[in-house]
Amino acid sequence: xxxxxxxxxxxxxxxxxxxxxxxxxxxxxxxxxxxxxxxxxxxxxxxxxxxxxxxxxxxxxxxxxxxxxxxxxxxxxxxxxxxxxxxxxxxxxxxxxxxxxxxxxxxxxxxxxxxxxxxxxxxxxxxxxxxxxxxxxxxxxxxxxxxxxxxxxxxxxxxxxxxxxxxxxxxxxxxxxxxxxxxxxxxxxx
Length: 190
What we know:
Blueprint (H helix, E strand, L loop, with lengths): L7 H23 L6 H8 L3 H7 L3 H16 L8 H18 L1 H13 L3 H8 L3 H17 L5 H17 L9 H13 L2
Helix pairs in contact: 1-2, 1-4, 1-6, 2-3, 4-6, 5-6, 5-8, 5-9, 5-10, 6-7, 8-9, 9-10
C-alpha cells in the first residue's frame, strides 16, 4: 500500500461525524435562528468547506443528525407483549421529543418547516418518527387484529405526545400508561 492512500477518507468521515455530533448541541445553546454553517464548523473543529462538502444548509445538517440519533433513541426492542411495547415506545418518544438534543433539533426543524418550504420538503422526505414506530405499531395491530393501516395506527400512537410537547404543554403531564391503554383499546375496537 502506498503511504497516504486511503488516509483522507477516514479523516473526512471523522470530520463528518464531528459535525453531526456538534450540530444539535450547538442548536440547544444558540437556537435555530442563530445557528450558522460557520458556527457548526467551528464547534466541530473543521473548516466550513468540510461542512459544505456534505450539506448545503444548516437544516440539512440538523436533519441528518436528528435522523441518526432518532434511530438509536427510538429503537425499542419488542418484548412479546404488545401493550408493554407500546408504553415503552411512548416513553422513548416522549424522552426524544422533550429531553433529547436530537429531539430539540427535530422540533426546531418542524417549526422552521412552517414557513420554509425547503425545510418542509426535507422533513417530508422521510418520516423518522413514523418509521421508528412501525415495528411496535405492527406488533400491536397484529395482537389486536386491527384493520387500521400501519400509518393510521402510527398517527394515533404518536399524535397525542407529539401534540402536547410541540404545543408547549411539556412532557411532565403525559401519562404514557394511559395513552398505551387507550391506543390498545382503539386498535381492538371493531
